[in-house]
């Protein structure tokens, strides 16, 4: 995307807002940091910083803004800066001016070391953010963790208002975490895995604590947590071969101690991800025993039948299973699976294990039992039904497959419509369709798969009846009915439009009515639409906003 014609690559709404910001003078500062890097301050609900990287021909290489706008596309602040830069690039005089004006790196290179130190100190002493970041960047390894924590806490403190962090202050609160995670990536690249773990644990600790005092609807905090956990898991995985037993003990203890902290009581998914990372240590019996003891203690705490406790037990058992899986002991794997069938994850693994061993009767038994055990959890029951169907498929029991598919279609699972259709000969199928449709008539409402069947099987008389009972559905299904039921489609459209017009109370509602009229005109012709519009004008002659919108149709 080039700065000279970026407008073609950005949505109209954001483009318009950005242009309004630019014309309104919201781009208050624009700096050329280097030949290719630009930074701007844009005033909005807050003052935001936009960084743009361009190449020599004006291609936008990178762009970012520290506003809380959560999207993969550009924000209005970036677009405002693009307009400012576009004006400069379109100025033919810019090239000569640019050559005369030295960039910041050039100016700094001309300074003596003592002058640079004095300049940096002046900046740092007048800006706490700069001071903390500089201290972190230049700190020695023994002080690195303390400096990182000071930086993280500083940015959190600066973002708080009365002990709470509002959604638009979240990026500022996480600035210290982001900088520290950048250092973590450097440590990983330099194979400093132990320090990467310590810094990641620091980021994880403060990010989880933040969840209780901030609006985290944007998901930015969770992103920092995920990055921290991923870095810890990676560092352990590649670092194990570099550490002696004593170093492993220190790191293992540090991670387990962190996982035991009470701050994870409300965010147990992160606790168990930390403990999952410790599986790497379990090639040694000592660590395996210690991790198992920790997991068993949590199993004891999660003994009640609440949903949260059941979920935690499943996660714990999953970690224990991964520990056993690592040892590649077939008998131990099978024993663990079949000893823990009350855990739905383990039951599923046992079914898949049975499929792998071609023990289809066993897989069938496990599936049917699962339906009874989890009968209060419809989503899980569906999974067991799928496996039951698959078991019968392996066993070649077409009659049982037909029964399951029929039931699942009636429950609204559209994927089973194609499955059941494949189980019958062409001359048998229409009778089955009739049975299905009659069974649907007994239900309180028709699921989407019912309409799919009507369309696929050309049951247009039923589809018309459905639209007559649910007028709004004519917008979706008129094209299937027009050839055979033109008059009826016209009547349904007219009834639906009159209903919407009667309920309309403001211009936005009127615009929606007129949009439906346009669809009606497209479907049933201009004369039908004109006749309806004339009737509406007479009926609503005291609604000038509605009349105005009707004239635009």
TrEMBL record:
GO molecular function annotations of the record: zinc ion binding
Pfam families in the record: SWIM
Sorted UniProt keywords: Metal-binding, Zinc, Zinc-finger
Span of domain SWIM-type: 48-86
Keyword Zinc-finger: yes
Superkingdom classification of source: Bacteria
Protein name: SWIM-type domain-containing protein
